[in-house]
Design a protein that fits this description.
Among the domains are: about 110 residues, ATPase, nucleotide binding domain (Nucleotidyltransferase, domain 5), CATH 3.30.420.40; about 140 residues, Rossmann fold; about 110 residues, Dna Ligase, domain 1 (2-Layer Sandwich), CATH 3.30.1490; about 70 residues, no CATH class. Helices cover about 30% and strands about 30% of the residues. It contains 16 helices and 35 strands. Strands 13, 14, 15, 20, 23, 24, 31, 34 and 35 form a 9-stranded mixed beta sheet that branches. Strand 26 and strand 27 form a beta hairpin. Helix 1 packs across helix 7 and helix 12 packs across helix 13.
Length: about 675
């Protein structure tokens, strides 16, 4: 029997399967099919040669929700909200963030729900959750009828202060289900049970916006998988890095919004622990975008305040930064004649010119083909023949429009340099700008294009060590299999920490009972459950919080001295100062509940015997720093154990190519990872 991980990306859908009995890992890639993602999933299983009846667990990461929001093609949503607050979703925070702050032509993005589809109900709660105005059922029925008449396909119920007292939202939802049973309902108290009305409303609206789409996608995927003999449910990776059942993903699709890149971070933590690398930056470069995440002591940085396009998304998520730079990013000229790369991408269709699938504009991939870093000897991903002449022609045509005397190789190297600079800015944002020195970290590179640019990126920002794991082109799909079932819960109670000890313990108790019940329903025994507590804290007078871990569930008290000391340390690290002795406020109590599933270890790495020459497949000319170099090209699967490598050189494998520029050296470690360091100069 196999367990299968599937990462549905913008350009390729990556599949990784692990045989339960032997630990054997098999991988493949198939082109993604935008707006028909399930077809690519089934095509990938067929390419692996695995029948549905031979799969006992299937986990997938998806960009369905992300793309639906960015492309504004979600469901038609109606909002039911407290009388007087129908415009809150549009007013927002009445502020503009950089870079919009300096754009005189800036226009505030329109919310996904037009004003005519926002309906008010008579009710009002106080800031402490007390009822000021009772819910008027007649006003609710009138609003529901108006919402249905407007053609609503989903309903978002967002009432003021419902995070403290959800009774009115529950009553509205019950009335809606009784009156219009086929209309999916999202209550803000279920989606985001914490304060800050705009962010809570925005997240709830997006959840409703995605519900019909995700429900149809997951139902269709499961039905088509059952037709192949698959007899189990489909697990979906959440934005937080854990997995969720289909039932949860359908009810709370907003929690899948950053699903795709999360699997790679989970697998990087697994690989880092085995390899003895505890502080690292993940670098996942695919065909459309690049995602980076900082991991300290094997714990990825997390946040609950993300943005998707112009919209706040207040759900627990890995604190990743994305930039529109991938192998398919297009090279183009701005109005002033300057060369730009991305964020537009050739995507899966038509793809880079070198793929021979109809692309006409040069991309980062085409530039690498021109530079000899991608060869035409073998098919990319086992399927796509490289059209080197087409790539050369596309880059040369761009060169004629640049207007300066420049060789085609120089222009190609310029395209790659600009792409690397864009990715460097993403790493700078999650490291230097947050008080972390990149020199203290290892870069773990994966994705179809990550190993190709990793060493140039590390050199640019000063990261001294790079690790390229096994199966980097399918790494995120493999990471899906290392992820545990995960549920996040939160309760808001604002007040002085010292006075809120009992309240916090009571909130933890409530969340723990609910979490254990949910995990039991999903089939996890008590010894297969792990519950972790944390608190969101701030200094009195601040408007932002830091999350502080306070241990696992079960403790009957909180060590406030230790918690306060930890908060001071985190504040110092994040902002460069702290105020020991200042009053600390509690904002939220959080609980993360894990259902522990066995992680596949994979087959033990056994390198090829013999010498390094046995792994040599060809020598070819590769350009670095404006000069050609005669480079060995090694096949990774044939590299001997502990083999030493020196640049300039290339390591090829299924789904990825690793480039060693001059001045870098490395070796194959005991676990099969490629480990590189910048050579020191005498």
């Amino acid at each position: 029997m196999f367990i299968v991980g599937i990462d549905v990306g913008g350009t390729f859908t990556d599949l990784t399967a692990v045989d339960d009995a032997t630990g054997r890992v098999v991988v493949t890639k198939v082109p993604s099919e935008p707006r028909n993602e399930a077809a690519a999933v089934l095509a990938g299983l067929e390419a692996l040669g695995i029948a549905g009846r031979d799969v006992r667990r299937l986990v997938h990461g998806t960009t369905v929700g992300t793309n639906a929001v960015l492309e504004r093609r979600g469901a038609r949503v109606a909002i039911l909200t407290t009388a007087g607050f129908r415009d809150l979703i549009e007013i927002g925070r009445t502020k503009r963030n950089i870079p919009a702050l300096f754009v005189p032509t800036f226009v505030r993005p329109k919310p996904v729900v037009e004003r005519k589809h926002r309906f008010e109900v008579v009710e009002r709660l106080a800031a402490d959750g007390a009822v000021l105005v009772a819910l008027d059922a007649t006003s609710v029925e009138r609003a529901l009828d108006a919402a249905a008449a407007s053609g609503a396909e989903a309903l978002a119920v967002c009432l003021l202060h419902a995070y403290l007292n959800p009774a009115h939202e529950r009553a509205v939802a019950d009335l809606a289900k009784g009156r219009y049973p086929r209309l999916p309902v999202s209550c803000s108290a279920d989606v985001v049970a914490e304060y800050r009305e705009f962010e809570r409303f925005s997240t709830t609206v997006l959840n409703a916006y995605l519900q019909p789409i995700m429900d149809g996608y997951l139902a269709g995927l499961e039905e088509r998988l059952r037709a192949t003999g698959y007899a189990h449910g489909v697990l979906t990776i959440a934005s937080s890095g854990g997995t969720m059942t289909t039932e949860t993903a359908r009810r709370l699709p907003i929690k899948t919004i950053f699903s795709g890149p999360a699997g790679g971070v989970s697998q990087a933590c697994f690989v880092g622990e085995v390899a003895g690398v505890r502080d690292f930056i993940t670098y996942d470069m695919g065909g459309t975008s690049t995602d980076v995440c900082l991991v300290r002591d094997l714990a990825p940085l997390t946040t609950s305040d993300g943005m998707l396009g112009a919209f706040p998304v207040k759900v627990p998520q890995l604190d990743m930064h994305s930039v529109g730079a991938g192998g398919g990013s297009l090279a183009w000229l701005d109005v002033d004649g300057s060369l730009k790369v991305g964020p537009r991408s050739a995507g899966a269709s038509p793809g880079p010119v070198a793929y021979g699938l109809g692309g006409t504009e040069p991309t980062v991939t085409d530039a690498n083909v021109v530079l000899g870093r991608i060869g035409a000897r073998k098919r990319l991903g086992g399927r796509i023949a490289i059209d080197a002449a087409g790539a050369l022609r596309a880059v040369a045509e761009l060169g004629t429009r640049v207007g300066r005397a420049m060789t085609v190789e120089a222009l190609a190297e310029g395209i790659v340099t600009i792409a690397v600079a864009r990715m460097t800015s993403a790493i700078r944002e999650i490291s230097i700008q947050r008080g972390h020195d990149p020199r203290d970290f290892t870069l773990i590179a994966f994705g179809g294009a990550g190993p190709m640019h990793a060493l140039a990126l590390a050199q640019e920002i000063g990261i001294p060590r790079v690790l390229v794991p096994r199966h980097p082109g399918n790494f995120s799909a493999l990471g899906l299999l290392a992820s545990q079932i995960k549920h996040d819960d939160v309760r808001t109670r604002v007040g002085p920490l010292r006075e809120q000890r009992g309240v916090a313990l009571e909130l933890f108790g409530q969340m723990e009972v609910a979490a254990r019940h949910q995990l039991a329903l999903e089939g996890f025994a008590a010894h297969e459950q792990r519950l972790v507590r944390s608190l969101d804290l701030r200094y009195h007078g601040q408007a932002f919080e830091l999350n502080v871990a306070v241990g696992e569930a079960g403790a009957h008290d909180l060590d406030l001295d230790a918690i306060e000391a930890a908060f001071h340390r985190q504040h110092l690290g994040a902002y460069g100062h702290s105020s020991p002795g200042a009053a600390i406020e509690l904002v939220n109590a959080r609980l993360t509940a894990y259902g522990l599933v066995p992680r596949p270890s994979g087959a033990r790495y056994r390198g090829a015997g013999g010498s390094l020459d046995g792994a040599l497949v060809e020598r070819r000319t590769v350009w670095f720093d404006g000069a050609p170099h005669d480079c060995p090209v090694w096949e990774r699967e044939r590299l001997p154990e502990r083999a030493s490598l020196a640049g300039p050189a290339i390591v090829e494998e299924f789904g990825a190519t690793t480039i060693l520029p001059p001045g870098w050296g490395g070796a194959v470690d005991a676990h099969g990872n490629l480990r590189f360091e910048r050579e020191t100069r005498a």
